[in-house]
Fold this protein.
Amino acid sequence: MSALDAVSAQIIGASAAGIVREMQEALFRTGYSTIIRESQDASCAILLPDGTLGAQHVVLPLHIGAFPASLAGVLARYPREEMAPGDAFLVNSPYEGGSPHAPDFAVLMPAFLGERLIGFTASIAHKSDIGGPVPGSCSGQAREVFNEGLQIPPVRIAAGGTINREIEAMIRANSRAPELVMGDVRGQIGCCEVGARRFAATAERYGEATVLSALQLLQQAATARLKATFAEWPDGVAQAERALESDGVRKDTPVAIRVRAALHGERLVFDFTASDDQAAGPANIRPPTVRAACAYALIALTDPRQPVNGGLLDAFEVVTRPGSVLDPRFPAPMNTYNATVHAVINAVFEALAGLAPEAARADGSDSRSLLFGLPADRPDPRARAYVQYEIFAGGTGARAGLDGLTGSHVNQTNGRIAPIEVIETEFPVRIGRFEPIPDSGGAGTFRGGLAFRREYEVLAEAMRLSVRSSKHVIPPQGHAGGEPGRCGDALVNPDADATRLAARASDITLSRGDVVRLDTPGGGGVGDPLARDPAAVLTDVLDGYVTPAAAEAVYGVRFRDGAPAKGIDEAATQAARRVEPPARRVAVT
């Protein structure tokens, strides 16, 4: 590629990225649900005529695998020559498309320059409710996809710019929140229309062949860039394993995710065939999601500024075993898939640390969601938002040289925490506490990020609660002598006769005045806690992140006259650190 070609490719690539960002902002601004408007559980992309990913704005990294698989499902039913301007296609089936689970609706639209198909624009966004046994559609006890709400194969939802009324009626009839769901679907179609117009204008300006060639060259460059990094790592084989506490159905049976990473020259292979058989409960994920999880880990370890396109997926290989938790057979359920994806990512990070030590990091808090179903006996309940759906993570894991982040999303769950003011305005709950939990980050030379506590008071009768969480039993692991983070927890009426909920609890009936407390996990630490800079420990104590008791017992730090405000007693700290303290964890209440 000549210097001029390289410059042209970068200009066109920047234009494509700008189009996707414009699509993304249009979707967020037109979102009916708090899931899209506030939590931003959605992504947009441009795909090339061959079905590969041309450009994606990274909000949810998993969609790097979902977009091509969703388009492949559409093209298997609708030949390109049968498509026309103004058409839009919808699919949410994880088996006939690429959605990680059925609530993620994918909308894809062909882009035309005149009468020539030049590519596709696409969006994937989570829906508030698509039916099923529980509000929010994500039952932690689902045994097949038919327990997870409406399953939509690839269908033409719009033709010539007009939405198919029969399909819309079908979606509305299968949702507890039809206005939210169809409002968000229309927003997806609208943002795809914006993207298709902008992409056509770019092709007209620079020439169709030039634009498509430039995006293909950028795909090749992304592949070469990753492979060049692999070539700098030493050849070798490394293995790692993570476990889910349960699949929601077999509640006392862990589910193991095992990866074998083999690197030879520029060839990197992730082999997951030793992972457990497919889960009875909704903890399964499909190969496109596995591949996207690996791509995310590689981007995070090499260059987070790396442009996201299909070339990243061509830089490595993934092997899964049909019938396993990472390659399930229809109709295995998968709506609480996120914990499995985190397990894949954490295992990949650990395996890669065996090949490239700079990749080492501790586990984060994974992700969780809280779903409140509002009472059905309200006047005209279907005219208002029926489902309150929020997504959270907790503390991120530390890595060599950096502490973890507190109250942050982790790994692929790259959304936002909905503001208290919005939640209290739209739903009958009052949030009484939203605060970091001291001592919840795994101790280490570099401390894990803190967990947080969020507490809800119920202001209506007969509300229904579901929780999709993880790491309530198995804590986020530390690394290289760092300690694990604090486990998560979920309680109803914690200050009275508390009821502890399972990590995957479904359809719990609540009464007015009940209090729901969600404690997220903290991130794991990296390195020996006794090697942490005492000044950093003092700062943590003064900030309320670490208690004085933990500073002494876990970090071996002593304060003048026992008072942190008076500073560090250097001599006493050095003496204390020569002897392993008897207690290396402090209980958190």
In short: Confidence is low (pLDDT under 50) at residues 585-589. The radius of gyration is 25 Å. Residues 122 and 407 are 31 Å apart (CA to CA).
